[in-house]
Amino acid sequence: MSILDAPVVQVADTDGLLVWPRSARPSPTGDVTVGGVSLAEAADRFGTPVYVLDEQEVRERCRTYRTAFPEADVVYAAKAFLCRAMAHWVREEGLGLDVCSAGELELAVTTGFPPERIVLHGNAKSPEDLRTALRLGVGRIVVDSASEIARLAAITPADSRQQVMVRVVPGVAAGAHVKVRTGTDDQKFGLSITDGSAQHAVTRILDQPHLELVGLHCHIGSQIATTKPYVAAVRRTVGLLARIRDQHGVTLPQLDIGGGHAIAYRPGEERLDIPVLAGRVRAELEDGCARAGLPVPRLTLEPGRAIVGPAGVAVYRVLAVKRTGDRTFVAVDGGMSDNPRPALYGVRYAPRLIGRPATAPPRLVTVVGRHCEAGDILADEVALPGDLLAVPAAGAYHLSMASGYNLVGRPPVVAVADGIARVLVRRESLDDMNRRDIGL
């Protein structure tokens, strides 16, 4: 049984590693190994903060999606985390790639990723993004606004046709936080089905001889733990496919339902059951198309967090401990510059002491970062003595959203597999940052 095929049930967290990579093992000394590599030794060798990424966990999660959706195009959402090795892994496991910028696209293609297996989307693609996509031969471009249609049509070579999809807003509210809900009309992404914007965009694209409309795209949010919103989104997009057929005589062959699949950051939190999602989406798609008299379109989905999130562990070293009022604060050598998610979305993690057995009784503390913001909090109300801390479920939206705040420098990414650790992305140095500052 693969990782994501496991039933979504609450089980006893006897070793405290329930939301860690499956290869994680505790040791009698208080250390934890991931992929056969000691985290304490990794911290000593590579310094802290450091991201440790379990290669086998990433690969197994890719395989689980391929097994659950054998008839679909599974494309990895690069925004969750992208480096050359990550692009290489998902390519080897048979996935496509979903990118949001010329930078992500260039990195992937220069790594050897086939451009025809890449999807480009974003709500505000720059002219450079679009030109790069056309130059490199990207497979599909997801149109997110009416103005983008004219811009793309104007720069598409006359002797070619670029495949495009329309990102639609199905009117489905889903997501763990208001800032990651993208399926309703009150946010920046997509074109509304309700007010007719999506239908208008379809008409405009069909009038462009160098754009080939191949399907619809929708992404309804992030950290979605139930299948019901996806089923509702499929139902509404199939309805739009039928209206397009009736109005234009065009049967679109593809439907992209995005990603947003929830993972657990702490024991007891829900995650999305991927095999169940596959069964219910497939059933709704087949039934809806049968009722509408449509052929079943080829499905695309875009998992990101659910592939790389649980594969990563962030390791920090404690710099200070102090008591203020009735709270004890444990400050570490990282924080919101390498993980802005707690400050953005109020996310909390389940850190663990590693490296040595605890000699003091645990007490409830608040783990905070080193940055000059009161909201720089990694975890609250956790029982945690010690001087080396590991934070699981750290593979997604940490380094990809990292910043240069306080000129601390972004941490390295170290891959682990079969007892071997290797650097994928080196630590950002002061020299790296100084080279960009050319104002004097």
By secondary-structure content and strand pairing, the structural class works out as alpha/beta
Number of strands: 21
Number of helices: 12
- Any idea what the shape is? globular
The major sheet is characterized as:
9 strands, mixed
Evaluate the radius of gyration. 23 Å
Account of the protein in words:
This protein has 440 residues and is α/β, with parallel strands linked by helices. The protein contains twelve helices and 21 strands. Strand 20 and strand 21 form a beta hairpin. It is globular. The termini are far apart.
Keywords:
440 residues, nine-stranded mixed beta sheet, globular, 12 helices
In short:
The chain is of the alpha/beta class. It has 12 helices and 21 strands.
Question: What topology emerges from the helices and strands here?
Answer:
Elements: E1 25-26, E2 32-34, E3 37-38, H1 39-46, E4 50-54, H2 55-68, E5 73-77, H3 84-92, E6 96-99, H4 102-110, E7 118-120, H5 127-136, E8 140-143, H6 146-155, E9 162-169, E10 191-192, H7 197-206, E11 211-217, H8 228-248, E12 254-256, H9 274-292, E13 298-301, H10 305-308, E14 312-324, E15 327-332, H11 341-345, E16 352-353, E17 364-368, E18 377-383, E19 388-391, E20 413-417, E21 420-425, H12 430-436
Parallel strand pairs: 4-20, 5-6, 5-13, 6-7, 7-8, 8-9, 9-10, 9-11, 11-12, 12-13, 15-17
Antiparallel strand pairs: 1-2, 2-3, 4-14, 14-15, 14-19, 16-19, 17-18, 20-21
